[in-house]
Amino acid sequence: MWKNIFDKVKAAGNTGSQQTSGPVEYIIAGLGNPGSKYEGSRHNAGFMALDAVAEKAGASVDRLKFKGLTGRAVVGGKSVLLLKPSTFMNLSGESLREAMNFYHIPAEKTILLFDDISLLPGKIRIRAKGSAGGHNGVKNIIYLSGKDTFPRVKLGVGHKPPEWDLADWVLGKFSEEDLKRMKEAAQDAAAAVELMVNGKIQEAMNLFNGKG
Fold first, then answer.
1. What pLDDT, on the 0 to 100 scale, is given for residue 131?
2. Of 43, 104, 135, 159, catalytic
3. Mean pLDDT value across residues 37-43
4. Which of 10, 16, 52, 133 is deepest in the core (most CB within 10 A)?
5. What is the pLDDT, as a whole number, of residue 212?
6. Catalytic annotation on 159?
7. How far apart are CA 116 and CA 158, in angstroms?
8. Domain 5-208's class?
């Protein structure tokens, strides 16, 4: 199972690519809910994807800042801030707005990673901008920033069964089979982000939006 993000604060050292110099060029934010209660839940797919980005970059997301956990890394040759808001999903914009204002990073250079119930587990969909599409975390980010031009990678978590309440579905855990698919999707998201920070969003869309 995916490690609790707060366990990582205690366990991780200041190693890897977070020891970077130079100004932050991009922010990569994975959305989710903090705490062991939500570990491995569908709504935490964004955290899973950010973990994959950090692992690939040799970075740790373990510094408490901007109402979240942060880490510095080099991704696709760019100096980036990795961010997991700790404000809970519906207030994700509070954390992201602080980081964007501090580093003077526009929406167009702030990449969001988050769950999508319209996609099957293991699928990802990349977009250059767009509405919140019913996602409360993205809705709060758009509301507080006044922008909807955030590039995003949406990770499928499966359609809600008719008999399920939406909140119960997104806060529920993945099956073992679906979790394997999500780990693969997280790796795809990490690869897509490397293209996106180099302005190759269309290439990332062509590679991953129709995959599988």
1. 96
2. 43
3. 92
4. 52
5. 59
6. no
7. 8
8. alpha beta
